[in-house]
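QA checklist item 7 of 12: single-chain prediction sanity check.
[x] sequence parsed
[x] length recorded as 118
[x] structure emitted
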Amino acid sequence: QVQVVESGGGLVQTGGSLRLSCTASGLTFENYHMGWFRQAPGKEREGVSCITRSGSRTYYAASVKGRFTISRDNNKNTLYLQMNTLKPEDTAVYYCAAKLSRYSDIYWGQGTQVTVSS
């Protein structure tokens, strides 16, 4: 059974930092592309960042580029999102996602709340 679990969310002031973690079990982690998504109240879920299987390529939404850094440790089956210079508009539930290939299903975590106070 595949399990994807996020952690590291919390309340932080504007300009602060948080690091999210995501551990995945029940799958061969190194075979999966991984990503972070977020959903703010009243808004649709949006992609934040993703990383290829080996970690050689990363992609970022324009709104977070230069502030967030995605990384992974395949030995620990863990995905990270380092978030710096946080803004109130970054407030959302952050979800981790695992996807084997282009046409495969996505495994989602339950989400972790990030709140940035102004």
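[x] summary fact logged: The radius of gyration is 13 Å.
[ ] second reviewer sign-off
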